[in-house]
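Lab meeting, action items carried over

1. Structure of the two-component assembly. Owner: GW. Status: complete.
Input record:
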Amino acid sequence: MDRGTILQFTNCKILRDHVIQKEDLWVRDGKIIDPEKVFFDEKVISAKKFDCLGTLIVPGFIDLQINGGFGVDFSHNTSDSERGLAKVAHGLLAHGVTSFCPTLVTSKPHIYREVLPKLKPQQGGRHGATILGVHLEGPFISKQKKGAHDEDTIASLTEGCKSLLDVYGQLDNASIVTLAPELPGADEAIQWLTKKGITVSLGHSMANLQEGIHAVLQGATFITHLFNAMLPFHHRDPGLVGLLSADMPKDRTVYYGIISDGVHTHPAALRIAYRVHPKGIVLVTDAISALGLEAGTHKIGQMSVEIRDQKAFVAGTDTLCGSIASMNDCVKHFKVASGCSTVEAIEAATLHPAQVLGLHKRKGTLSYGADADFVMLEPENLSVLSTFIAGECVYTK
Amino acid sequence: MRLVILDSSSEVANWSAKYVLKKITQFKPGPDNYFVLGLPTGGTPLGMYKKLIEFHKAGRISFKYVKTFNMDEYVGLPRDHPESYHYYMWNNFFKHIDIDPKNAHVLDGNAPDLNAECESFERLIKEAGGVHLFIGGIGPDGHIAFNEPGSSLASRTRVKTLAQDTLEANARFFDNDMSKVPKQALTVGVATVMDAQEVMILITGTHKAFALYKAIEEGVNHMWTVSAFQQHPHTLMICDEDATLELRVKTVKYFKALSAVHHRLIEENSN
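Predicted assembly:
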């Protein structure tokens, strides 16, 4: 597409300013533009009209927690990281995801040193979704709440930022670190990461509410897969879950990731979280390498995974081995399960994750000046019909 | 003068849009032959714009060879403010039609030199060959554009300081905060509109009834600036029943008796 060409997406509804409205979307040089300015200041008309056939245009989905997909596991596929990353980035376009944070689970220091420099932030396009930076989930987590993470690899945070650098090597490509705030040294680590512009997320933790509030005051802004790998809600100590309704200074919003795949979070729990704190909800897939694979048995690394009924099992058993719901499915499920509006369901996968990373002026929105990353949805069932990055169509069903 | 009395404001919208449609169609505009339209903002003409957009979408009218000149704009109001007339015209009309932005003229209330902006507006109208049809609405005090009571009937496009009454009436659009209400506006003068070949004024609602009475039953008076159009050779006033409440029965009966003649003005395939 030539530089300066104005595209007018017409015959559509768009999500802007928290409202779905009958409006055209105007794009130039990869950005969303204000057509009124162009009309009165530049006195030019759109060069190319694009008939959207009545579809709903919303910002592209942003996934802050995804371990892999399409047969690739970011934490295990260490020798061939770039190719694996590219494969996932490309596959996600069909799910309406235009940017994401590849996630590394608790790993040994040499793995971080090998893999982390290769998972570089990268502008998306036809080749795949934009890579925003790595989500480092661990290894500074609680042994009691390790979930599927390897207990022997869990590291101590006693020396604060020195511990971080000793384990990770470098943090240039990181955008989120999930840690347990009750660990000794966590305060210093949270402050240091926050200063570097890295989002601190609380998770895999035994923290009580006091420890959670303290961590937020140090700079943490996110909770990793709410309900999973943390203390269950108790009425005398609501734990990290209590952060959703805790008294907090007005300028702090705590966001929380939630896996809305219909399996990992019960619809009733989903509704509780959503009703208490609707502005903080962030849909994450937390998907494993089996995301995007056909039904049947697959050999992934050392593991045999069987996909049936859109769930992933350890082959030959009924043991779930992780989430494989696409972001598009999570949005649909969240809307049905929570009874929220379409706007709220979409913003939980667009605006809110962008806010977590402080990118909400550029991503997760169709406001003027933002990146033209968007998806066209079937207006009734919200299925992805096509995906655009920087104004370019990168996927069509 | 013609006064067309219709049952409701939606009929006023319909009628006036059909009139514009017919005028432009008959004119047969083309690359060397532009139709020049003067345009108002506000609540009254909104329905007319909606209808014109409908006609455009149905392929019955094109604005490709139409030049437009808007009556007025606030001074110093950001253009993307919902009360700015740029915002109004873009959202309610221009973005829906095929007008060339080069031909859509709205006074720039943020111009560095406001007087020069007004002079250039007058010049542009002259260069376009004058306005064929100027459409206007009126305020309850009988003002046309921002030519408030007491404005000279010989006025041209200029900077106008707004009356206290107008500021107070406008406060509701600016969070009821008087300090946010623009104190000045750029407006075409009464004489600028008088120069048009034809003037069509839309008046709807009971709150405009007294102004309509002043406009057509009393003498020409700068305290009711719209009354100046009594002296225009081709003035067409379109009103609804509500707006006639202050008129004499005789006046209403006279103009209603002419309704058959008036309706011929918007018939298709006639002259």
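2. GW to write a short summary for the group page. Key points so far: Chain B touches chain A through 13 residues (CB under 8 Å). The CA atoms of residues 69 and 105 of chain B lie 5 Å apart.
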